[in-house]
């Protein structure tokens, strides 16, 4: 039996038209062999005269309706590290954060480098997931950087992109060959841009705070050198390249210049790179340790500028759950990464929208239409669209607390912070 949800009196955000008009949205849910999607949209205050049978209706007055968010970069930890997160808990956190689709990175235990394991993840996501899970597969076997995976077999099994995220492909010749093979088929390659000879042994960003804490720093060049290499290889091969978690002034400058030269490149950043800086490690310790690390205030400004001018195509979470034991320890021993699915939108509203760096239409591009385009999809609230709907209130305040976190892990420097921007509801097909 097919069911429907009617969203009444929402302001429907259309970033292409730069408009937010009052209207109602009828979402059809998948079932009985029928695909789900947006069935109809009415503008104005009037509601449809008749509704389908088995339709739930609710009033979304005061909320903005956007195409359901897409996270191009998260870690669900399954298989192998279910004590940190599972597909079920991770997707529950995703929906609570406004996401209808998450792209899961392959650095699980074991890494997702073969079709059998990839299909197992897809099946578990269908059984236990609360939203759509699109898996990526590794670039190299075991993510060891020595032998390329079978891209065609993995793509046929359901991989939407290829990445050794968590590890860079250090061998330039191997990365060039990976890009050449992926270019032939139009596959997307996601680069973890890190030059290990510059970052090895580093604990946080190189600078005064690292010196004060007595730990080894990671220079900006560790990211910039790797980005420069991959941009050169992408230009040479013509491959589709996506740069993950950009954090530095030099990194965004390189990407901006490459785009101007016609390189087929897109990039993302994460909320912590435009809201926090390396000085915050002094206060939050292991919960502010990540890779790439929190950078300087100069880098934060550069990232914000790149978001505003369109150089950065999307905001991703890099949701990386860890146990409390792995984070509440001396800084050099703490694992890299923070959770982010439930704080991403609020951080973007608080640090980008409300200060006036971007408007609501750009925010919608960064969370919805931008990542959709990178995946070769469309995300729009129109009849026939396959996306869901995320309802948000940018003016509502929220306090980040353990009681609202759906993830199995709580490693975030935003814990206890008061932020603006809430996700009111997510309606998925």
Q: How would you characterize the overall build of this protein?
A:
The protein is an alpha/beta fold and 429 residues long. The protein folds into two domains: 4-64, no CATH class; 68-420, Alpha-Beta Barrel (TIM Barrel), CATH 3.20.20. The protein is 31% helix and 22% strand. The protein has 14 helices and 17 strands. The protein has helices at 87-96, 115-128, 151-157, 172-185, 196-199, 208-213, 221-237, 249-260, 272-275, 281-284, 297-309, 324-327, 344-353, 360-374, and strands at residues 4-14, 19-28, 37-43, 55-59, 64-67, 69-74, 99-104, 132-135, 162-163, 188-191, 204-205, 217-218, 240-243, 265-269, 314-315, 389-399, 418-427. Strands 1, 2, 3, 4, 5, 16 and 17 form a seven-stranded mixed beta sheet that branches. Helix 7 runs parallel beside helix 8 and helix 8 (249-260) packs parallel to helix 11 (297-309).
């Amino acid at each position: 039996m097919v069911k429907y949800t009617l969203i009444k009196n929402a302001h429907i955000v259309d970033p292409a038209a730069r408009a937010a008009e009052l209207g109602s949205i009828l979402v059809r849910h998948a079932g009985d062999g029928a695909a789900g999607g947006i069935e109809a949209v009415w503008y104005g205050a009037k509601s449809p005269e008749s509704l389908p049978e088995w339709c739930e209706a609710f009033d979304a007055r005061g909320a903005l309706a956007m195409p359901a968010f897409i996270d191009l970069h998260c870690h669900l930890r399954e298989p192998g590290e279910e004590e940190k997160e599972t597909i079920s808990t991770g997707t529950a956190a995703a929906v609570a954060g406004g996401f209808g689709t998450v792209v899961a990175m392959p650095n699980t235990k074991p890494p997702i480098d073969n079709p059998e394991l990839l299909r197992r993840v897809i099946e578990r996501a269908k059984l236990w997931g609360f939203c759509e899970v699109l898996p990526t597969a590794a670039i190299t076997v075991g993510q060891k950087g020595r032998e390329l995976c079978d891209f065609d077999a993995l793509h046929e099994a359901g991989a939407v992109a290829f990445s050794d995220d968590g590890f860079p492909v250090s061998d330039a010749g191997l990365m060039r060959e990976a890009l050449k093979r992926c270019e032939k088929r139009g596959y997307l390659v996601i680069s973890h841009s890190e030059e290990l000879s510059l970052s090895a042994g580093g604990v946080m960003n190189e600078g005064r705070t690292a010196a004060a804490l007595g730990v080894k720093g990671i220079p900006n060049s560790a990211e910039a050198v790797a980005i420069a290499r991959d941009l050169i290889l992408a230009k040479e091969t013509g491959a589709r390249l996506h740069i993950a978690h950009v954090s530095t002034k030099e990194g965004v400058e390189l990407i901006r210049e490459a785009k101007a030269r016609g390189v087929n490149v897109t990039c993302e950043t994460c909320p912590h790179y435009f809201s926090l800086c390396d000085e915050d490690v002094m206060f939050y310790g292991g919960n502010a340790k990540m890779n790439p690390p929190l950078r300087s205030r100069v880098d934060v400004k550069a990232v914000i500028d790149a978001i505003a001018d369109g150089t950065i195509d999307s905001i991703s979470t890099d949701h990386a759950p860890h146990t409390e034991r792995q984070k509440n320890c001396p800084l050099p021993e703490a694992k890299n990464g923070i959770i982010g699915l439930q704080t991403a939108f609020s951080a973007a509203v608080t640090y980008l929208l409300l200060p006036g760096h971007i408007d609501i239409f750009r925010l919608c591009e960064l969370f919805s239409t931008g990542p959709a385009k990178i995946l070769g999809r469309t995300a729009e609230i129109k009849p026939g669209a396959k996306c869901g709907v995320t309802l948000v209130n940018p003016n509502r305040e929220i306090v980040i607390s353990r009681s609202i976190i759906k993830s199995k892990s709580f490693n975030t420097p935003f814990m206890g912070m008061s932020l603006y921007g809430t996700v009111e509801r997510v309606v998925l097909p």
